[in-house]
## 1
Amino acid sequence: MIHKNMVALILAGGQGSRLGAMTKKTAKPAVRFGGKYRIIDFALSNCSNSGIDTVGILTQYKPQQLSTHIGIGTPWDLDRVHGGVTILPPYMSEAGGDWYRGTANAVYQNITFLDQYNPTYVLILSGDHIYKMDYREMLAAHTAAGATATIAVIDVPLGEASRFGIMNTDGTGRITSFEEKPKNPKSTLASMGIYIFTYADLKKYLKVDALDEKSDNDFGKNIIPAMLGAGEKLIAYRFEGYWKDVGTVESYWEANMDLLKADNDVKLFQNDWKLYTVTGSIPSQYIGPEAILKDSLISEGCVIMGEVDHSVIFPGVTIGANSRVVDSIVMEGCTIEENVIVNKSILLEGVTVKASNAVGDGREIAVIEEGRVLSGGGFMK
Amino acid sequence: MKDYMAILNLAESENDIRALTTNRPIASIPIGSRYRVIDFMLSNLVNAGIGNVGIFSDSNSRSLADHLGTGKPWDLGRKNDGLFLFNHGLCNLMYTDSKLIKNNMEYIYRSKSSEVILCSSYMICNMDISDVIRAHEASGADITVVYTHTKNADKEFSNCFTLDIDPETGDLRGAGKNIGVGPEADVCMEIFLMTKDKLTDFVYKSTSLTSLTNFYNLIFDQIGNLRFNTYKFDGYVSCINTVSSYFKSNMDMLDIDVSNDLFRSAERPIFTKIKDEPPTLYVKGCSTSNSLIADGCIIKGKVKDSVLGRYVDVEEGASVENSIILQNVRIHKNARLSHVIIDKNVDIDENTELRGNEFFPLVIEKKNLLR
């Protein structure tokens, strides 16, 4: 078997229940984002752009859309002769079957997958974060330090630090202690949920953790503290750049709005670090004679006759004359007829807003469920 | 329906469209914001269920080969059949399409299909070829030829074959060339249906006679000897063989009825190569109207009545009107463009003013690596 230096595992089984209607039919990593992507495209494109050619995707909650999206990995150049992308759902064995009980348990259940490639390092990623990162640089830091584990961290404002897993480090970047959502944070270095482990060490700790019946089988709660307790060398890798965990409707909306500047922090237009996704054969967008466009992202296949202000419009959306879409996210295949106002709303796939209706009050974000037809006139929240 | 294979014959005259074909054949000229000329006919074939397409190219085909790849975007990246690309290794003036097809007869023999669709790429249309097949099979004719009736023969379809069709019986009486003397004509769309055996006959006849004859001439030579059936196509057609027809065809696509007919059909989509560009960003202060715009653009200036390809930047104060801008072009601040065609990878400097007109659009050629 050909040896791989580093294999990536993307944890993509989460529900993302705080995203409400958006994750009613699909797992959070498959939620659409940024005008033509799905959230997992960021992690997958990062892998591809970092030269990682072997990626396992751990799925559990409503995986159908995610599996269809990933396919054999062609958009990310992950349809490879050796390696490539493998979808790893929970499975049955002679002794019965088990759901993935925690992040560490999910990886533990796939040790056979990892052993196939006999990697020196394993990269553990979340499938639901928005960021661009070169994992090669993180691996270089890991090998230079000769660490057991390297955890990517980002500096957060002190006031928000209690929402994250916080790493306390010494002067050299070595992690001295880890606190999950501390009330009185001693540091502002938040874990991004991105880990590089030296595989031989990780395997050892996973096996011990699996035998511990009281364990939550979680990287943050169990594996990292166990490693620290045993005096292993864990280092923090500081990431500078845009990173967002779109856990709530508000943060999801904000992260989309963050893209609406030409020099946006996500660097959507960065040509040497492209974001890849599944693209259909759709014609170019047509902008009508009376259209007004301000600070908006618009995708292929759209026909825009009205006004779009500070919004993200996915492929194949039609916006009728005299209609106005403000501060909104309109997903694939929505139809907005004439004389409609859409204000601070998220329209999921295939929503139709009939003529002369209004959606959203401009204060709270209105989320309209997939395929709904809004008619009858008047105000709708 | 019998089993059909297709031959796309790219021996298309480039005499009047040289500015756009210095680096590529007509088949791979970008058109309609995100397509290449060949995408239309290739998609028409695929949408009719044809899974074996041989492309016979006679000129510098680097750009074409790059565009087609393994044929995957057209679902032709197959284990069995799929896409085959044949081209001249050397630029031999004695070569014609007949000779090229002859040289690759093994491909035609080996294909399991019994019937052949022979066609060109430069007739831009969205055609239900399965309907042509049905009509061909119902007619019992040896050869079906597809044509369109135009009222603009004095402006378009320059030098294309015209057909003389008996208005009473619909029989094909003869064929000629459109030299633009009158507005009305029945123009041959260079789509022929016949058996593989018939095609083979033509190939051997051609090489025993002369290798200098265009293949379609050989077919029309048989009027009177073979049974011809004619099929009239009523949808939008444009022949991309002059700079002005290229300009007009792109502008036609700004008409929502034309674009609905050409590339917004749900049953017959037009497929093309995927490029992974982000959505297009419209920055406050921009003004965009009546334009077809591909993804990956950043629009800060004015774009009116124009067609923009992928990755076009229009900076503040710049204005683009009645123009066709191909992929990866940057139009710097306060540049003003009207009736121009800008080929790929060109930078238009600040304050530049470029102006053509409807009949003579100004063409700025593709940026050459050596420049």
## 2
Amino acid sequence: MENSDYIDRYFNNELNASEKTQFEQKIIDNKDFAEEVAFYYSVWASAKNEVTEEKKKRFGEIYQNTAPNKTGIVKRISIYLSAAAAVVAVVLIVNVSMKPDSSQKLADQYIQEHLKTLGVSMSSRQDSIQVGLDLYNDGKLQQALGQFEAIIARDTVRSEAKKYAGIVSLQLRNYDKALAYFSQLENDISLFSNPAKLYKALTLMERNHAGDAEQAKALLRQVVQNNLDGKETAEEWLSKKW
Amino acid sequence: MDNAGISSKAFDEELIRSLKGFAADKRKAEEQLFSKYSYFIKEGERKYVLPQDEIFNAYADAIIITIDKIRDNTFKGLSSLKTYLYQIFHNKCVDLLRKKTTNKQGVHQTSSLTEMMSQLSDGAKSIIQQLVERTDFDLLKQRLNEIGDNCRQLLLMWADGYSDKEIVANLAYKTADVVKTTRLRCMDKLRQLYKH
């Protein structure tokens, strides 16, 4: 019990720095004490796991109860209406096959295929950009954005950082910020290759607010007409109905 | 700011208050948070092309981590709850995809557990990690279920991040000191059961 209290006070941050050092040294010097600490930790882990499992079970029940039950509707269709239902089914199938792709679907597909992980930077100041890219590829989006924004703050003409800051903002669904970064990138006429217009269109397609699709299409047309970066993608998207 | 933005901010604030409150309020708030953004699951299925049960697990884990972060004040409100939750959910999905591509099973550890261990110096941590790896968690789980309802409930609330003071308010104990003494006795009792 005495050790239990000592261990509890350590993990509750109730010991001062010197007492903490003594506690840690005792773990190294005293095997029995180390086993008590390990047990304390294991009980915590086990109980935490129980709590997590209980919560997941509860969440699962909520999700099951709130998920739409499509089969119920099907069951209600009377046998006497089977012929009519068949006609409806044919109409539905035709409708589905004619249904245009949504702009979000196209955008999601592009993000999944092209922006899920970002390649190695070719910049001469590779290190700081590469740190951001590593964070992005590790899924640490907020930290990656912080890294790219720090680079931009140090060097406002750093187009590469703006491009990545825009991409991260897009992934974080901060569409206004993404559009702002891509607009800054768009204004950089010194770049030989500039995907800003395509990325702006992509962001608008993903956001999908009223009027976004029209704006995105206008940008894509500019990409095609001016033979800009992403021309093939722009042509492909423009050829689809959305 | 538009109306949707204001109501979302108000929702966040109310939810955070409830999550830090009494157990009954917290439970309801957990369910509200889960339900509000459960559409992430469908989106996740579409975006990450993973089975629904795996995406559901990732989302439930993200909800639990978010709740823990709110309760231990790690969530500072610098972004909206939705953004914060989405980022954790996204990271979970990326982890799942990585596990699929590398065919590795990661050790299941919550962020709180990792943080708990991180308090230790490297030398002490290494010893504790080795000892913890030898723990028979199936047996410990079994013993935890045999220890009696009061002890079990107390230990689960402790593991769920409730302080002794908060437990006083939720369970029938007189003071935080009584909670602590009872909790440590429960742990000793559990150790005896586990060892024999």
